[in-house]
């Protein structure tokens, strides 16, 4: 389901140039649709959905959400103008809001705490696989039949997948594999869950650090294909093969490796939840600059491989930290709050910023406006690194306080 979730979300990023040409959109308009408009519904609707899922069947909420986003994806392919496409893609966000938080909670109840990092790391292979399949199939279908056919055909796949959720995904007991101390009588209310999230510094810092990280990943991600086609000389068929391979190998490797490393290092210190993504982003910066600078697409893809691998350590770290730090009956809601903060910052503002920056630079750099806009994302790497280092200090302080209480 995560593969389909991310595939439908990424189709505009893959087919952005064709959509812009067909619907006569600027980079700024495209960034608003895929960024701010999408994120406003995707992030804020996740809160009531998370509240509902914590009290009902999480698997059924997931099935309904999949049906909504898949139908809306098909509607995107039928849009004939800016407004119709924007509304359809906003509804995609409305449906996708019910996909990830219930899944985090279901998986956390499938696996004990000592294995959740690896389990969630495997689950987080959904974005790279979805992005890679979206590039491979979406670009191939669009090259042969047009961008509309890609939306309609791939959206239809999700409608059939709903049956798989209903008949295959078992609803596990909430907190069945947690220690008795982690359980509580009754169900946590909305106010209690919100207060716990907002008053715990480690959870808030994890959300804001992840948001800064996503500002780069989504800001870059929604314009990578447009950048490769427009300024690096790639064709859509080359994108369908080579860029798909980069996503499949580099992003998948990042999710798998980060999950294993997280389980290994968090046995020794909780600071690993923050230090692993901080260190990875330090090494990602030169790869990212190389990608934007590279004169030809083949060199750009080599640098992009390193960038993609190092950019995504934050996801498994932050998700696992939040799932570990809250009660079992607060997991969906807390996961939704994490997604609200980091996706509103990253998904909502990242593409919006890059699109607006590209429009701004167009007068001075008509042939390299998007390149200049992508260069301006580098400072946001630094912001994310600083926030993750602050999180490491908070986690160290919390660990010391917990140790003193035990003594």
How is this structure best described in words?
This protein has helices at 2-14, 16-23, 27-44, 46-55, 58-76, 82-96, 100-110, 116-123, 126-145, 147-168, 190-199, 201-221, 224-231, 236-266, 272-293, 297-311, 313-325, 331-361, 369-375, 378-406. It has a single domain (2-173, 190-406), classed as Up-down Bundle (Growth Hormone, Chain: A). The chain is an all-alpha fold. It is 81% helix and 0% strand.
Topology:
Layout: H1 2-14, H2 16-23, H3 27-44, H4 46-55, H5 58-76, H6 82-96, H7 100-110, H8 116-123, H9 126-145, H10 147-168, H11 190-199, H12 201-221, H13 224-231, H14 236-266, H15 272-293, H16 297-311, H17 313-325, H18 331-361, H19 369-375, H20 378-406
If you consult CATH, what is the topology?
Growth Hormone, Chain: A
Order of helices and strands: HHHHHHHHHHHHHHHHHHHH
Q: Give start-end ranges of low-pLDDT stretches.
A: none
Would you count the extended β strands for me? Answer: 0
- What portion of residues belong to β-strands? under 5%
Q: What is the fourth-level CATH superfamily?
A: MFS general substrate transporter like domains
Helices and strands: which structural class?
mainly alpha
Radius of gyration: 20 Å
Judging by the overall fold, what is the CATH architecture?
A: Up-down Bundle
Helix content: over 70%
Morphology: globular
- Please, how many domains? 1
Terminal residue distance: 45 Å
CATH class: Mainly Alpha
Average pLDDT score: 85
User: What's the story with the biggest beta sheet?
Assistant: none
Oligomer: single chain
How large is the count of helical segments? 20
């Amino acid at each position: 389901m995560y593969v389909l979730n991310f595939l439908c979300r990424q189709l505009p990023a893959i087919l952005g140039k064709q959509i812009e040409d067909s619907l006569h959109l600027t980079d700024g308009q495209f960034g608003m649709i895929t960024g701010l408009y999408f994120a406003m519904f995707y992030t804020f609707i996740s809160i009531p959905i998370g509240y509902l899922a914590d009290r009902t069947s999480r698997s059924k909420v997931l099935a309904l959400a999949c049906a909504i986003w898949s139908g809306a994806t098909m509607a995107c392919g039928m849009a004939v103008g800016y407004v119709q496409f924007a509304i359809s893609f906003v509804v995609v966000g409305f449906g996708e809001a019910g996909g990830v938080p219930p899944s985090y909670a279901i998986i956390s109840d499938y696996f004990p705490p000592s294995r959740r990092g690896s389990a969630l790391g495997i689950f987080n292979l959904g974005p790279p696989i979805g992005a890679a399949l979206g590039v491979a199939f979406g670009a191939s279908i669009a090259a042969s039949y047009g961008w509309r056919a890609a939306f309609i055909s791939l959206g239809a796949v999700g409608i059939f997948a709903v049956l798989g959720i209903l008949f295959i995904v078992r609803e596990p007991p909430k907190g069945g594999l947690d220690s008795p101390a982690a359980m509580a009588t009754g169900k946590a209310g909305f106010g209690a869950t919100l207060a716990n999230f907002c008053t715990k510094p480690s959870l808030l810092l994890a959300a804001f650090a992840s948001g800064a990280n996503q500002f780069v990943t989504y800001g870059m991600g929604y314009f990578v294909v447009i950048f490769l086609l427009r300024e690096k000389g790639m064709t859509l068929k080359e994108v369908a093969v080579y860029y798909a391979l980069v996503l499949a190998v580099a992003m998948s490797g990042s999710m798998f490796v980060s999950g294993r490393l997280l389980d290994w290092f968090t046995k020794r210190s909780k600071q690993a939840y923050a230090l692993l993504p901080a260190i990875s982003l330090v090494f990602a910066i030169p790869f990212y600059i190389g990608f934007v600078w590279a004169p030809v697409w083949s060199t750009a893809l080599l640098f992009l491989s390193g960038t993609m691998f190092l950019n995504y350590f934050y996801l498994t770290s932050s998700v696992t930290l939040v799932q570990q730090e809250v009660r079992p009956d607060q997991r969906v809601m807390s996961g939704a709050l994490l997604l609200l903060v980091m996706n509103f910052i990253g998904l909502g503002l990242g593409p919006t910023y890059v699109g607006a920056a590209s429009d701004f630079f167009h007068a001075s750099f008509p042939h390299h406006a998007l390149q200049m806009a992508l260069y301006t994302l580098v400072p946001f790497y630094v912001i994310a690194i600083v926030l993750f280092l602050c999180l490491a200090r908070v986690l160290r302080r919390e660990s010391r306080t917990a140790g003193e209480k035990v003594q």
